[in-house]
Design goal:
- The complex is a heterodimer.
- Chain A is built from no helices and eleven strands.
- By secondary structure, chain A is mainly beta.
- The termini of chain A are far apart.
- Chain B is mainly beta.
- In chain B, a hairpin with a 5-residue loop joins strand 4 and strand 5.
- At the A-B interface, strand 4, strand 5, strand 9 and strand 10 of A face strand 4, strand 5, strand 9, strand 11 and strand 12 of B.
Chain lengths: ~110, ~120
């Protein structure tokens, strides 16, 4: 079964607005990662947040992690048309080496 | 250019044929992975390899095979035993950064191969 579940499945906004995507997971994690996928392309790593971190920033991206609620959110501020893509969260369950488990993604459409 | 490449970009196969998808990386990463992505779905792990000459089955390994004879290369063979092989296949690699006892495995993806069975 999928470890991470993104919400919403799809999101449509106007340029300049903020976009918020959420990810929930079931078991304890070592870290949680967010990836972007443009249509028909490979995934691009955006940000990794460790289990002992609560918030992390990278440019227009802000990621939060609440381990007590087993959830994370990705905020994209001042969205641009180029942000149109699918966004996936992925969880790493162990402190040692482990594989990632991906959710089904949120499809974001940013209209000019 | 450092990166991860996959070939071919599009592949068509007749039922009953085996096909091999190529994945090469020059990032000097130890770990490599193969995923399958179906429309509107997330990624499902087929096989992964932590080091040369070693690999492990993922969640959906049936009907697939891999080899890891070189650090740079991790080819995937889709065999005729795979009942529904039409999908988008993604290869990734990871440096498996270590920080004390913890490992952080950001993954770097290739552009993908779209396989269609006719």
């Amino acid at each position: 079964s999928q470890q991470g579940e993104e919400d919403p499945q799809a999101l449509s906004i106007q340029e300049g607005e903020n976009a918020t995507m959420n990810c929930s997971y079931k078991t304890s994690i070592n870290n949680l990662q967010w990836y972007r996928q443009n249509s028909g392309r490979g995934l691009v790593h955006l940000i990794l947040i460790r289990s002992n971190e609560r918030e992390k920033h990278s440019g227009r991206l802000r990621v939060t992690l609440d381990t007590s609620k087993k959830s994370s959110s990705l905020l994209i501020t001042a969205s641009r048309a180029a942000d149109t893509a699918s966004y996936f969260c992925a969880t790493a369950p162990n402190s040692g080496y482990s594989t990632l488990t991906f959710g089904k993604g949120t499809m974001l459409l940013v209209s000019p | 250019d450092g990166g991860i490449t996959q070939s071919p970009k599009y592949l068509f196969r007749k039922e009953g044929q085996n096909v091999t998808l190529s994945c090469e990386q020059n990032l000097n990463h130890d770990a490599m992975y193969w995923y399958r992505q179906d429309p509107g779905q997330g990624l499902r792990l087929i096989y992964y390899s932590q080091i040369v000459n070693d690999f492990q089955k993922g969640d959906i390994a049936e009907g697939y095979s891999v080899s890891r004879e070189k650090k740079e290369s991790f080819p995937l063979t889709v065999t005729s035993a795979q009942k529904n092989p039409t999908a988008f296949y993604l290869c990734a690699s990871s440096p498996n950064r270590r920080a004390g006892l913890r490992v952080y495995n950001e993954q770097f993806f290739g552009p993908g191969t779209r396989l269609t069975v006719l």
